[in-house]
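Data deposition worksheet. Section B asks for the primary sequence of the deposited chain exactly as it was used as input, without tags or linkers unless they were present during the calculation. Section C holds the resulting structure in token form. Section D is free text for depositor observations; keep each observation to a single sentence. Incomplete worksheets are returned to the depositor.
Section A, Depositor: J.P.
Section B:
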Amino acid sequence: MQPEDLNNLVSRAARRLAEAGVDTPLLDARLLLQAVTGWSREEMILDPSRPIGDGQTRQFDALIARRVMREPVARILGEREFYGRSFRVTPDTLDPRPDTETLVGAALHLMPPRARLLDLGTGTGAVIITLLAERPDATGLGTDISAAALAVATANAERHAVADRLQLVQGSWFSPVRGRFDTILSNPPYIPSADIAGLSPDVRRFDPLAALDGGADGLEAYRRIAAAAKAHLAPEGHVLVEIGLGQGPDVSAVFVAAGFAAAGERSDLGGRLRCLMFREEKK
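Section C:
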């Protein structure tokens, strides 16, 4: 049988993905073919008639079948690009979203020299590892209740050469934390429990439930963080949290009730309020 060319193979796969309800069928097909062939995006654009052998076609079709079942590309490949770096992703971790880069950008703006950082619910470690990579004078602590997630974060820290400045400890929120920090960050679970069933299959089937479910009103994690943050915040320090759609007023109310004052907010590239910043209320 004559080998199928690149252009036809991608087009056929993109049609399958579109029929399955995938939002970015052509992009996903190209990324999966790149993974199979090792070709760059530029090589694929410059030579769209390049033939694909039977073995690689079968590998590609197998990956497309997984994406048809709505497994995200990052989970198929085991890698996610975040803030210009590649991070290992496993079923034990939340798949870092581009929206969370908003949290990173806000933190970089506020961090003092030689900042000490605390990342609550670190998952892959993408947030704190990125901050440490961007600021070589900073040090950090990351916590997660999942030992498996911490193993992923450890591997990512080693990959990006920040392991000597990052301590990772297991525990729920502040329970394993000692000391004070200039910047406390978290991308906590914030989806109301009743809304989980209505999430995209890409999220509902493949992200860990514990990283999504924010309790009955989606605010449980924010209450836990706000209640204990003062005991671990350095003078003039800041607490930064990612939030979900429409949660700004409610999350702000939680922190204000705990004795914090608003210190800024950031929207993501889609114009949605994504990050809130707080400092201790001055008496």
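Section D:
The longest strand covers residues 233-242.
Residues 7 and 45 are 9 Å apart (CA to CA).
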